[in-house]
Amino acid sequence: MMILVWNNPPTVAELDAALQQYPMRPVQLWLCFQGAPPRYPLPTHSAPLLAYALHRATCCAQAATLSPPLPLLPQVDLRLIPHHETPYIHAYAQAHHLQWQTEALPQQPLPPEKPWLTVPSAAAVESVAVIGAGIAGAATAFELARHGVPVRVLEAADAPARAASGNRQGLLYAKISAHATAQTQLLLAGYGYTRLLLETLLPEHEEWGSGGILHLNFNDAETRRHRQLAEQGAHHAHLYRAVTAAEASAIAGVPVTQDALYWQQGAWLHPPALVNALLSHENISLHTRCALQSAQHDGTYWQLHTTQGSFCASHLVLCCGAQSAEMDLLNGFPVRLIRGQTAVAAATPHSRRLRVALSGESYLAPAWRDAHTFGASFIANDGDSTWRDAEQHDNCLMLQQLHPDLAAELNAPAPFLRGHAAVRCDSRDHLPLVGALGDVDAMLQTYAALAKDKNYRIHSPCPYLPNVWVNTAHGSRGLVTAPLCAAEIAAQILDLPAVLSHSLRHALHPNRLPIAEIVRGKV
Length: 523
Description:
It is built from 14 helices and 26 strands. The chain is α/β, with parallel strands linked by helices. Helix 5 (182-201) crosses helix 12 and helix 9 runs antiparallel to helix 10 (404-410). This is FAD-dependent oxidoreductase.
């Protein structure tokens, strides 16, 4: 892969000239920047296709971390590199050919990494089996498939997106902290990436809406968080801004009594539509009612035994969501189960005026196909996905707190339309598990000294399972985080330039969990 790098954002004409000068494909365009991320304005009618692609790709640009590869043209991706990551450009490019188009910026090696947080050497990829057809599995399959890899997706249910990805309407925005945490970086990078996927894969907007999201100041803590974000938001003013209740009312189309943070490019979507669009790639084969019963590595391939027969693959990616807790290969990687249930109510003449999604302790999506989705419940350590009338009642109470006037209308009709109940999968630190899986039994022996001293220096290479990766534990944030993490998984498997920053890759590495158990003396 060719990588063309600029130390400052170039013009559209300069980018176009570089693409003409370097006709080999695939190619990535890496644009370094200081301060606010570059954004390319909506071009005039006669502008080249590249100008339109740059405008679309940078609409949700962020300055917190590396951007993932943003598709511009066939075999041409854009990457935005904030100033604090520019010293590591050569390291992130890895073995790929990098060509500076301007004076090169000073480079330095990445900081040393713990042996259990490394990425194992890439092995030749013949085929990949992805376990699970929710948003994480579908996105992982898509990212591999678009690089020419044949992917087999094995799903236990009778169709994709039956579990946590099966809500009728979900929201896409980044509920971030005012601090530069790993989760804030992940959410900001993932938000723009999923938003671009929607534009690319579902261009007709029939099953998603881009009117924005109003996150209300529903308590003192949210008011403080929104104020802090607005005060430091110069770099991200195109993503979110503080609005008064009067401004929120004008945006929403219905009266709003609270100030809010307005995510002007936020969206609601029908998650199964995105999942199915991802799975429609020609290099993906989907097998439903195909529960994984056992998996063994024969020295060359993974032999997968399922309820629909046996399959083999050179690589295996676990995207099992709540089923992660029951997966033998994930023993030693503790996850938390969180039950959630949404509600659906028929739209009314007044509720149809709602133009944007409202969010607080719960959410309300605009009418789609003449019904609204709202909720959701959040019950920790509950793995039951059956429908509960009590939670329907709780969702109605939360809607009353979110918007009393709309609740009075939407809660009045009976019977209610049936919503969706499912179980989310989360981790102890609320970050997903993304990366190659260590062999936990071998790790317990190799790194046993950490139980006595967590800072004990151990240089022994991590014992990894052969060619097994995981993309799971996205909690309630999977629409934002799972596609970005899928791109990182594909980059690791295919030895592509790193998608996530060095620090973020470490923060999400699944091996952090068994190491934490060793340090705490839990094993």
